[in-house]
Amino acid sequence: MFYAKLKESEKIKKLIESIKDIVSEINLECSPTGINLQAMDSSHVALVTVNLSCEGFEDYRCDKVINLGINVSNLWKLMKCAANEDSLTLKADLDPSQLQVTFENLLAKKHCNFQLSLIQIESEHLGIPETTYSSLVIMSSGEFSKLMKELYHLSETVNIETGKDSVTFHISSDLVKGDIRLENNDSNQNKTYIKVEEPVNLAFALRYLNMFTKASPLSENVMLHLSNEYPLKVEYRLEGLGNLKYYLAPRISEDK
User: Fold this and answer.
1) SS3 label, residue 184
2) What is the pTM of this model?
3) What is the largest distance, in Å, between two alpha-carbon atoms of the chain?
4) Domains (range + CATH), the chain
5) Which residues pair with 53 in a beta bridge?
6) pLDDT (tens digit, 9 = 90+) per residue, 216-256?
7) Kind and range of the H or E run holding 76
8) Order of strands across the sheet with 242-248?
9) Backbone angles phi, psi at 210, to 5 degrees
């Protein structure tokens, strides 16, 4: 059987919310060591991966590897039934047709139990190799979210350019041209860490970057991994539980 329990449902609620507008169906691969998922958007431009360690759960059991095919929209509708402080339990048989989802709040004496029908998903698991990126930017998740939202209202595309001690977000549209430049900053407010082995200047769709920022409540910081050879990796680390990563293919920019 598969059984996983979290003391509070808040992280999983925010996790599902952060991917629901990007992917419509997911295969949860449950194993004795944890839960993983990998899904691509319908345009095959963005890839989402999630890795949750069994050690991050209050109670966890999985007798063998099983795949749970889930409609993300339906799961999100269930997750909205839970308060952030409610405990969350996921349960399934080894040959499952349903996922049992339970929310409990002992103080409120509230117990919610649902059976979510599973679906068959034909998807190829992509092997993502260990990659060395030539530029790394670590910044406040809140600041990154603010920047992407502001730029998304002005342009469809942003060029992310790294220099020795800085990262610059360039936009150019019929409406406006300009840039926002951040430098290494170790102050207590909006810390920014930039490490560049090789400068990068790549164009990305702001629509996707803006959707990625829905994961901001999951982590204080966001990590941007950039390389001229690979898609952008946007990483959020879920303290004590695992990580969420988005991969985004660059656009071919005429301005480059």
Assistant:
1) coil
2) 0.92
3) 60
4) 2-117 (3.10.150.10), 135-248 (3.70.10.10)
5) 34
6) 999 999 999 999 989 999 999 999 899 999 999 998 755 44
7) helix 72-79
8) 66-71, 25-31, 34-40, 46-53, 242-248, 232-238, 221-226, 135-140, 192-196
9) -65, -40
